[in-house]
Design goal:
The chain is α/β, with parallel strands linked by helices. It has five helices and five strands. It has a single domain, classed as Alpha-Beta Complex (Maf protein), CATH 3.90.950.20.
Length: 152
């Protein structure tokens, strides 16, 4: 199903958990390139090219930031399908506007955003992170199924 696809991840609140899940699969070196864990705003800017003005305007947990993260990731690695995640896993850090459990995910191919989605997850820190990992992988599966059907 991953024919001609090489994956990369840019992760914040999941701390590399998506990459770990992908590389748990035997043979993943054939289709996994890299992961950038960009937990701080500085690393999002320095490693992924996220515009600091966008972070200031929308916050690190936002559609604009995850979209810049995933597109910046694909400019910097040898992959043709990227995933990015930024969220508030808790227990602190939430606000009325962005409560704990708010997680943004984005998927892209080089130069082309596929989708960005905001989720509101329940549970403790690990539960929020695990749900984010699951949704990130589900998004890859949706894209790959769509990509394969376009080739038929």
């Amino acid at each position: 199903m991953l024919q001609n696809r090489v994956l990369a991840t840019a992760e914040s609140c999941t701390g590399g958990w998506v990459a770990k899940s992908l590389t748990d699969v035997d043979g993943s070196s054939q289709w996994f390139d890299c992961s950038i864990v960009s937990y701080s705003n500085f690393s999002k800017q320095a490693l992924l090219g996220v515009n600091p003005t966008v972070i200031d305007q929308y916050g690190a947990v936002s559609q604009a930031v995850v979209e810049q993260m995933v597109l910046g990731l694909l400019e910097r690695c040898d992959a043709n399908l990227g995933i990015s995640i930024s969220g508030i896993a808790g227990p602190g850090g939430g606000s009325d506007e962005k409560p704990v459990g708010t997680v943004w995910l984005a998927w892209a191919t080089p130069g082309k955003l596929i989708e960005s989605v905001c989720f509101q997850f329940d549970g403790d820190r690990d539960a929020v992170r695990l749900q984010a990992v699951f949704e990130a992988l589900e998004g890859v599966e949706r894209f790959l199924a769509s990509d394969v059907s376009k080739q038929d």
